[in-house]
What we know:
The complex is a heterodimer of chains A (152) and B (754). In chain A, 34% of the residues lie in helices and 16% in strands.
Amino acid sequence: MATLNLKVNKKSYTVDVDPNTPVLWVLRDHLNLVGTKFGCGIAQCGACTIHMDGAAIRSCSLPVSAVANSELTTIEGISENGDHPVQKAWLEHDVPQCGYCQAGQIMTAVALLNENPLPSDQEIENAMNGNICRCGTYLRIKAAVKTASQSL
Amino acid sequence: MTIVKTNMDRRSFLKASALAGGGLMLSFSWLAGCKPTPEQALTMPKEWFELNSYIKIGENGAVTLFSPNPEFGSNVKTSMPMILADELDTDWKNVFVEQADFYPERYDRQFTGGSQGIRQGWTPLRTAGATARMMLVNAAAQTWKVPAGEITTEAGTIHHKSSNKKAGYGEMASLAATLPVPEEVKLKEIKDFKIIGNSKKNVDGLNIVTGKPLFAIDHKVDGMLYSAIVHPPAFGMKLKSFDASSVKSMPGIKDVFSINVFTEEYERNFFDVATFPEIVAIVGNSTWEVLQAKKALKVEWENAPQSSFAMTDFGGNKSTGSIPAGLENSADHKAKMAEYSAKPGNILRRDGDPEAQFKKAAKVIERTYSAPFLAHNTMEPMNCFADVKGGKAVVYGPTQAPELIMSTLAQALGIPKENIQINLARMGGGFGRRAYSHHLVEAALISQKINAPVKMVYTREDDMTSGVYRPTYTATYRAALDENKNLLAFHVKAGGIPETPIAPNRFPAGAIDNYLAEGWQIESNITIGAFRAPRSNFIASAEQSFLDELAEEMGKDPIAFRLELLKRAETNPVGETNDYDAKRYAGVLELVRDKSNWNTPPAGIHRGVSAYFCHNSYVAEVLDLEMKDNQPTVQKVYAAVDCGIVINPDAAANMGEGAIVDGIGNAFFGELTFTNGVPDKTNFDKYRMIRQKEAPRSIEVHFVKNDVDPTGLGEPLFPPVFAALANSLYKATGKRLYDQPFQPQLIEMGNLKM
Ligand code: FES
Ligand code: FES
């Protein structure tokens, strides 16, 4: 067990956990931030995607000890009222089916657009390829990323 | 004009108040973050007046509609309330939707599966909406002392023209709620629908994109503990012993014990497919801690002997279920299936004299198709929250079939049904997997044992390796042609482990004078169950690939050939038990032919067509494939769908797009094999799922416009796409593909990348 200070969505937290605990489980079990999802636990599906200092990472495969000095952002932190351009585009295209993968998809999309505000189709496909959507909403995801990119 | 008797759906008119003493009726609505958004016109009223099980109206005119069926992504939580709202004649922007808990005293058929939610909910929901509207009209008639027949409604307001009296629904709701339920009500004319047929956004959209706790896996209460499970590593094995002391002293670990979801005397139902009835549960303070203990637990397994149990089968008959012993291998499965394919099967349908025609044929074409076991791989793994204490149980979990798991829960816990409350979580996917809900029983048993609320979560590995899989199948098709290439006879023999995929009265039965369908099955201890369009998902791929090859052999265009057969089935059908409407079937083929400009494909495009009827709906699909740098890329898929009236067109298109993507993914990559009973894939590193890059570049879903009552939509677009892909790959590569998944064979073809 170790006492660690974390910064998530601009708020400071102190947790007392095994330092090997993946960030995902600290968020979900200890900080009650359950928007970040568990899908595979081995960095293969993208459901657990969050931002570490602005870059998309797989929170299931990163020990909490590695993020103590970083700024973390989760789906709960990208906007106050669900009005981030990416969230708005997601609603406009009515992307979700079951919805389970979508927090991860959105976090990947936000990181992509932060880095590359006008991605080509191929750049979108490449960036989004790590996020599985079992319901198959890929076309709408791509369309929503494009819409968001135009409104940035 | 349709007049319906309200007594057909009497239970939906029971008021909650009448039941308040009996049922537990916990409201979980807060879970959905169900607070009004700024865009919503009305805020929460001070008081709600309940008109029936589905509808309550506030004094300010706000309307709450309860969505009865569990939501797994097929949009029922939006589309079912749309049906209510249209007949109620309210304004959609004043509607709040809440997920109903499992409440059989108030709702019929709270089951999501078989693409039946809308089809079976159609009349009850319309009736409930129309009845509530009538009660509001009657309240106004009584208040204004005018005949009810002179009163009209529109978008939540009630109007009496000659006296020029107007009122909002909210003003009449308190009186309406006390009035008798009318004996019969008039339903709207289809042309008068205002909400049905006009796309509405997913009612949970904002909650989803903001990461609100919508799923059972997100649920948490004070004092809740976490649980992981350990199950046998192979089908055909069971628990022998475990050493609790190997993990009990690990940090955060509270308890380790085994549980069994079935008591000895319990009579199972058809959906009691529990992969491993006895498992070990580890309980602790956090997910990570129980996962560490899961890895460290010392446990011994042994081979399970053959076993049998009492059960009631699908038709409600008492029978004995049995589970064979042994550690099975995919290689043996293949050999056994080949052996069964070569033997005569059970005759399922026989028209004319097919054997004689095959004897005199100038040419016989015979092809054999196969497909492997598939794992559902719902994005949210199996999990459940349960709180069992003091002889009462609250279970909150992802289930498609709460009614079916209720008896299993009651026997396992030794608690009567009336003391068990099942609350319905939004599911992170279902695809049939969560029709088998033993994860609810497991969580409840764990909670009961430790006397505390608990959340049990499967790892992805648990989920993938203790599945209720899509069976593996094979089908052999034969066609007899005369010297002029006329079709003389048609024969299909198909089976699988452990069921046959044949629906013997579907097309092309009914279109061919000499027709023979045979089925067979082989027992197994690998658990199987419903998977998006069960059986159809394989047999459509085999049949529609074969028809494509047959058309080519006969020198006919594949669409024209199918239409010819359908014309025969329409005008002069063979047999009387054909279960499809040949005209509607032809209709979707014609529509897809038009929409895709079938005869003039774009340059560089390889096209395949396929069509299928299942879940009461008709679908035809054309798939356009391009070879880019030796890589097959699906450019576009056109789908034509006849599922009757479409409730929520954009969401329906979304569902159709998803089914098409799912089908392409499974056709290319989907496969689960077994070695000595052990599943060979355990997670997404080996089990390849379709991803963004392999998805089609675009999909067009076209609905046939008609006034037929709505039928299935979640499944019917899935089965045809496998053959549409195979047939287009043939055009692109010159090779017919007979065995799924296709990707390994494409790689072997040399130079192809995927
Ligand atoms: S849960 Fe982290 S990538 Fe799948
Ligand atoms: S919406 Fe269900 S997994 Fe993506």
